[in-house]
Design goal:
6-stranded mixed beta sheet
């Protein structure tokens, strides 16, 4: 299971990018997250306040206490967020 993830932010919000394969290994999919997160083909961008903690908790439960998670920050260089412009939010849920 991967332990390196990227955190993207704009001046008002942030998202943790997690690959869908890792989420599936944890038993998570877009139905577990709010409409404030975003999705593309291979990744989900989990909103920092309510959705990223769900992932981080599941990841910690699945991994040993000696396995460290690495989060690399990728702040936006301007007021526009490429996450909001480029990806769809979770308004359509997956069918189980």
């Amino acid at each position: 299971m991967k332990n390196k993830f990227y955190f993207f932010s704009d001046p008002s919000h942030g998202w943790l990018r997690v690959d869908r394969e890792t989420l599936a290994e944890l038993g998570l999919n877009q139905n577990n997250f709010s409409e404030y997160s975003y999705i593309d083909v291979g990744y989900m961008y989990l909103e920092e306040d309510c959705d990223a903690p769900i992932f981080l908790s599941a990841w910690a439960k699945k991994n040993s206490s000696t396995t460290k998670i690495q989060i690399v920050e990728r702040p936006s260089s301007n007021k526009d967020s490429f996450v909001r412009r480029k990806y769809s939010n979770f308004t359509i849920k997956e069918v189980a």
